[in-house]
Amino acid sequence: MSTSSIEAFIERRWADAKVELERLDPDFVSRLVSTDRIEKMGLIPPASVDLRRSPARRLSKKWHRLLESCDELNIEESVLWVSSDYLKPDANRGISEVEAGRRADYHIRSWFIHINNLIERVGDVVRKTANVYVADDKERKELVSRYKERVEEIAREIRQERNQYAHGSASNAAREMTEKGLWELVVALGDIPIKYHVEGVYPYLAHHLMSGMYAGSLGKITEKMCEDLGAILLELEADVRKLSS
Questions:
Q1: Cβ(9)–Cβ(230) under 8 Å?
Q2: Which of 20, 201, 213, 216 has its CA 20 to 30 A from that of 141?
């Protein structure tokens, strides 16, 4: 997979952090870069090079928070794609219909958790980026507020998708039991809801899983959401550069 807009944004934050560290302690960066280059050539660095030495001055707490947030964002984007990949038919061959239904239910739930986490991470990166690059309090607050609304628009889109996928899921089956007044019936008969899932819900989910419907639809949403969130970060980057220049 080619580098996403989100990954590209993160890579540039790492590059900017290196520039800042070079400003704080150029000798520390120079020694490490030289040593790394020597080791990649298969050579042994001079004994005088102390790799355990800390920089004379560390990056600021604001920079550390931004790097932490960017790292979490990078992980969450990767995990989201894994969730999407597990909904592909080829990842679920050779299992029973019930097991396929269980997996579909699990991975759809997982996908929605991770897409929401990704959106939250982007919002966090927006705030941390503004903290590092924008010194003026008023400009920083206005910038964060504007981009917070952009991120929230995407969150609303996902909530709509979640409502759509809730229909036909195992969770929705429990709500149907309440709406149709069936809890008293199953309690009286001694049945538990999992029997309904095994006989009705899971085969339904398995059918759509193995037909490729979930992989196709959620895969497209994954791609679009990552592109939209990446576009927000790239626009944010342009804005903070203007404000910090």
A1: yes
A2: 20
Alpha-carbon distance values, 83 to 54, 80, 94, 114 (Å): 39, 5, 19, 8
How much is the pLDDT for 196? 66
What are the phi and psi torsion angles at 162 (to 5°)? Answer: -60, -40
The pTM (predicted TM-score) of the whole model is 0.83
Distance CA 34, CA 36 (A): 5
186 phi, psi to nearest 5 deg: -70, -30
CA distances 150 to 88, 140, 144, 157, 218, Å, are 31, 16, 10, 11, 21
Distance CA 193, CA 175 (A): 11
Q: 166: how many CB neighbours lie within 10 A of its CB? A: 14
In 3D space, the residue among 206, 201, 109 whose CA is nearest the CA of residue 162 turns out to be 109
The pLDDT assigned to 171 comes to: 58
Q: Contact, 70 vs 84, CB < 8 A?
A: no
Nearest C-alpha neighbor of 209 from the set 89, 91, 85, 99: 89
Q: State the Cα–Cα distance between residues 5 and 173, nearest whole angstrom.
A: 38
Rg (CA), the chain: 24
Give me the mean pLDDT over the 22-50 stretch. 72
Return the number of other C-beta atoms located less than 10 Å from residue 26's C-beta: 12
Amino acid code (one letter) for 232: I
Name the residue with higher pLDDT: 104 or 32.
Answer: 104
**pLDDT band at residue 163, thresholds of 50, 70 and 90?**
low
